[in-house]
Amino acid sequence: MEGTKRLLLFAGLICLLGTGAAFGGGFNIYEAGARATALGGAFTATADDASAIFYNPAGLAFLEGTGLDLNLMPIIPSAEFTGATPPDGGDHATGKTVDQSFPIPGIYFYKNTGELTYGLGLYAPFGLGVEWTDPDSWIGRQVSYDVDLATVYITPAIAWKVTEDVSLSFGVDIAHTTLELNRRMFSSALGNVIEFDAVDVMIEGTSDFNFTPSAGAMIKASDKLTFGLMYHHQKTMQVEDGTLELTNIAPAAFAGNVDALITGLGGDTHSGSTELKLPHMLSLGAAYQLTEKARVEFDAVHFGWSHFDELSLDFGNEMLNSTIPEAYEDVWQLRFGAEYTVNDKMSVMGGYVRDKSPQPVESMSPLLPDASRDDFSFGIQYQLSDKLILTATYMGVNFEERTNVGADGRQIVFAEEEEEHGTGPYPNPAGTYDSYADIFGVGISYRF
Amino acid sequence: MTKHKRILIGVALTALLAAGCSLDTPAPVTLDYTLTGAEYFQSYVAIGNSLTAGYMDGGLLGYDPSKSGAAYAQVNSYPQLLASTMGYAAGTFYQPYIAFPGIGGLDPDDPTSVLGVLRFDGAGLSRTGATPAVAVPALAVAALYPLPYNNLGVPGATTLDVTTALDSSSSQSPGNTFFDLILRNPTFGNVSMINQAIAMGPKLITCWIGNNDILGGATSGSPALGVNITPTSMFTTMYEDILDQLIEGIETRHGHTPMIVVGNVPSIANAPYFVPKLLFNMLAGGAIPTEEDAVYVRFPALSYLGDGGAMPLPAEYTLDADEVAVVNTAVTELNGVIADEAAARDNVYLYDANAVMAGLDPNSESAHFLALVGAGMPWETAAATTYFSLDGIHPNNRGYALVANGMIDVINGALGTELPQIPIAAITWDPTYGMLDDTKTYTGLVSPEAASAMDAIFR
């Protein structure tokens, strides 16, 4: 146990250091365990390792003894931006994200006491990390040049084996969010007519702990067919301790003016608040044992992204406040996974996900250039001993190319933005994004 | 593990790698911000001189902060009238408002005092008041507005000033503090009128400039090409500069091509400031000896007469036939340049201010207010008859509405829009500023303090 305690601490530390990346529609991260990820996340009706605490704790009821799963899932995202060619035929802007790796943790523990199984999990189902190279010239820097958003869930859950074939689970999702946003304020926004980067703005905050319920069910309909159902309630994370720091980065000739403007804004440090709205997740899964060695699962996951209607930053000052319209839409994700048992020690897995973006093209921004994706996954699970199972997985997340310029050559924006800016320019740059992500995962399952 | 299973896994892996791993640099799409119709009305900036600023009665005056609802000339500038017609909500079209008593000229007897604007006191012209020179900046009630003004008209600006003047000292009329009050440099980073306009990214621009390139000569009494009238070739270069910089600057920085309405230079013959000699004699109540072939007498001569100045009238007060010819030639040539430059560009349209002014009836619509009153017309009727303000050069409220309507016609004609005309009959002008006192203590029609303004009103 000493060793596992140390591992647990280590993993916890990683999770505190690490921040999220955007890899389920919007900024959802559905990759909470190496085995589930190898199966394309189609795991609601399988849920046969400790990561069930996220995917469906009802599955725990059918596990035996005591188990500890440690997963580490480094996500390596990359995105490129090609700005639209201006109407006068001039050069178009380009942008590229900094290479980063976000280690997503998944730490789960369960103990089966017979009719009831207790579980505790720590994972990060929502996160975002987009840093653009060259903050001094990145065209979208007044929206964001570096954003980090991480939401960690701690879920204690109880699974109840109602009958030999039916189980239910209840849990509490305890969530905590940290966010940091770096952007620039242009001189024009401060009233100066010569365009230069006047102020660097850094916004950071941590949320209060937020408690919402979660519940799941698993039904073994026959020897071959299992149904799973899982629900995580939506959340509104309250960030009350936000701070906003203004740093004068104006050229020397204007530094005095900008200093005066910062003083006029009430100094270089401001406190404020924001809300981060997270969607509910409802997954319906059906797993089918095709042959003795092959099984497949199909899941449909509903995300209540319409909850994420806007992101408003309130710093009690008209020039510092901002309300970013998001207007996300609810989406269904389709997940498909298959597993083939090679022998009594090894199995191979594969998966495919069709992930429709909840983000309307109007709110596609340097903060989060989302798009619909196709994910392909692959994994191997190997039983080292009676107590130890190792899993290695890879998932490729392939975003569709997406542009916010319509066929008529106009940027697609919200009506209220058009009212304010006419034909533009708008803060979100006009152009096309393409993104891709590699997700690697390793998992260690220990059975006591 | 059999061999074919291994192959299967290998194939699956390869397929996965082929499916993913592709991060292509997207090909650029092309923006097309060709504006149409009413889209041009989404943002509007006016550049120009006193005519654009809403200068009237020999000065600039917006409203009286101490009296709510007391609105004066600037509130009725043609850019403001246009903006309101185009849908700008009240208070969203920003102008460099000057508070009561306004800014006219320096008091000749006390250079530390800045006089307000002219007003009709019941018998002749007086002033709305005076402000100590040190307190003048406090009159600029919109000084802290954080963006450039939508109305960037600077009284006194010449064509060259549009692109080069940053403040009074770098302008063609050093000492003209309107440059400092309106361009607000160095606070705005030492940016010229044209660049402030470009920074705003307007979709519609009105540019009425060139008047001061001639007027300076005409009001001096001895016009001379190249001395106080800008030579045509130089004017052409400067004018092309303005249009090209506006169009290219806005296309480059804001991605759309603006529509520009340019106004040309009205002939002095149609401004009541230049009084035909016959009419002048009538106003003065007798034949006034002048230089031999004088055609026009400048309005301030009335004040000279009132002071009992020596006769014959000094030459600076008159324009003779040759001088009139010089001025008229310059007007024709400059207007030719303006028309040509507008015609040579797709999105530039001409408002023929000269034709509009020439079309006014010199005996009523373009007669001086005092001439009408002197002819026995009640002042209220006179104020509702003439289109010119008390300074004789600048329009009054009715005149600026006439200008706005002319521009509306040009805009509607170019865009096929249906901006409504401003009902001029409903526009009132009160030359008394509510200060009718009729306690005249001076002789003639112009009080000495009013006269001091007269030499500065060519702004």
Sequence stretches where pLDDT stays below 50 over 5 or more residues of chain B: none
Low-confidence stretches of chain A: 1-22
Tally of extended strands of chain A? Answer: 21
Beta-strand fraction estimate of chain B: 5-15%
Please describe what this structure looks like.
- The complex is a heterodimer of chains A (448) and B (459).
- Chain A has 448 residues and is mostly beta strands.
- Chain A has helices spanning 2-17, 34-38, 52-55, 252-264, 415-421; strands at residues 66-83, 94-96, 102-112, 116-131, 146-161, 166-186, 197-206, 210-220, 225-232, 235-248, 269-278, 281-289, 294-303, 310-314, 322-325, 331-341, 346-355, 373-383, 388-399, 402-403, 431-447.
- Chain A has a 14-stranded antiparallel beta barrel.
- Chain B has 459 residues and is α/β, with parallel strands linked by helices.
- Chain B has a single domain (46-270, 325-454), classed as Rossmann fold (3-Layer(aba) Sandwich), CATH 3.40.50.1110.
- Chain B is built from 16 helices and twelve strands.
- The interface between A and B is large, with 57 and 49 residues.
Question: Gist?
Answer:
The complex is a heterodimer of chains A (448) and B (459). Chain A is mainly beta and 448 residues long.
What keyword list fits this structure?
heterodimer, A: 448 residues, mainly beta, Porin, 14-stranded antiparallel β-barrel, 21 strands, B: 459 residues, alpha/beta, Rossmann fold, 16 helices
Itemize the secondary structure elements and their pairings.
The complex is a heterodimer of chains A (448) and B (459).
Chain A: H1 2-17, H2 34-38, H3 52-55, E1 66-83, E2 94-96, E3 102-112, E4 116-131, E5 146-161, E6 166-186, E7 197-206, E8 210-220, E9 225-232, E10 235-248, H4 252-264, E11 269-278, E12 281-289, E13 294-303, E14 310-314, E15 322-325, E16 331-341, E17 346-355, E18 373-383, E19 388-399, E20 402-403, H5 415-421, E21 431-447
Antiparallel strand pairs in A: 1-2, 1-3, 1-21, 3-4, 4-5, 5-6, 6-7, 6-8, 7-10, 8-9, 9-12, 10-11, 11-14, 12-13, 13-16, 14-15, 16-17, 17-18, 18-19, 19-21, 20-21
Chain B: H1 3-19, E1 44-48, H2 50-53, H3 78-86, E2 106-107, E3 110-115, E4 118-120, E5 125-127, E6 130-132, H4 159-164, H5 178-183, H6 193-200, E7 204-208, H7 211-220, H8 232-254, E8 259-263, E9 274-276, H9 277-284, E10 294-298, H10 301-306, E11 318-320, H11 321-343, E12 348-351, H12 353-358, H13 369-374, H14 379-383, H15 397-415, H16 448-454
Parallel strand pairs in B: 1-7, 7-8, 8-12
Antiparallel strand pairs in B: 2-3, 3-6, 4-5, 9-10, 10-11
Helix pairs in contact in B: 3-15, 6-8, 7-11, 8-11
